[in-house]
Amino acid sequence: MSRFKNEITHLQAHVRTLRLGSTGLLLVSILLAIGWWSAPRDLTIHIPPDLRSGSMHKWWEVPPSTVYAFAFYIFQQLNRWPNNGEDDYPRNIRMLSAYLTPACQLFLQQDANRRQDSGELRHRVRGVYEIPGRGYGDNPMARIKVVSDDDWIVSLDLTADEYHSAEQVKRALVRYSLKVVRQDIDPERNPFGLALDCYSQAPQRIGRAVDDEHKEPSS
Questions:
Q1: Domain extents for the chain?
Q2: Of 5, 41, 69, 191, which is most buried, counting CB atoms within 10 Å of its CB?
Q3: Distance CA 67, CA 194 (A)
Q4: Bridge-partner residues for 2, per DSSP?
Q5: Global pTM?
Q6: Residue 100: helix, strand or coil by DSSP?
């Protein structure tokens, strides 16, 4: 009888071991499921445009070329008034709000109100574009200042053209010094994970070809 009792005791111990092992595997599976569920579904990886010599950087680092391209693209879209500045400028601010910091959006709204009150936007068509030979590829070190991993200052040398109806009233060569910050809070609306924080200093006119009699500011 003792032999049978020992066998039963042995089997019971084995069953308890299997139960403990099964419970442990269940707990590990739950932890793995929680980790998988909480992991990000999308990662934004910034790739430099020229890969002929290869590229090695951490996935969360933003290359200066990407920061410059972002600043130029958003600023150009902000200053594109194809029909009437009274309508186009405020609409651009609203459409690009996901790419602007709250402080910058407020500043631009106040700027639009001021310009509208002074009649600077009525029937105005505006556009800005890079001055040839003064883009990022011509002198990268002069175009980007890295303040930190999350802050940059971008220098854009642009031509600003304005028309009233069919008549050109302004062509100014202007240097815009813009602040860009990391703002990865809404990937659906802003896949760049960056935001324009408006000017780091007042725009500087670096040349002028045509201007109107009102002597309007270059910004």
A1: 1-32, 64-210
A2: 69
A3: 8
A4: none
A5: 0.70
A6: strand
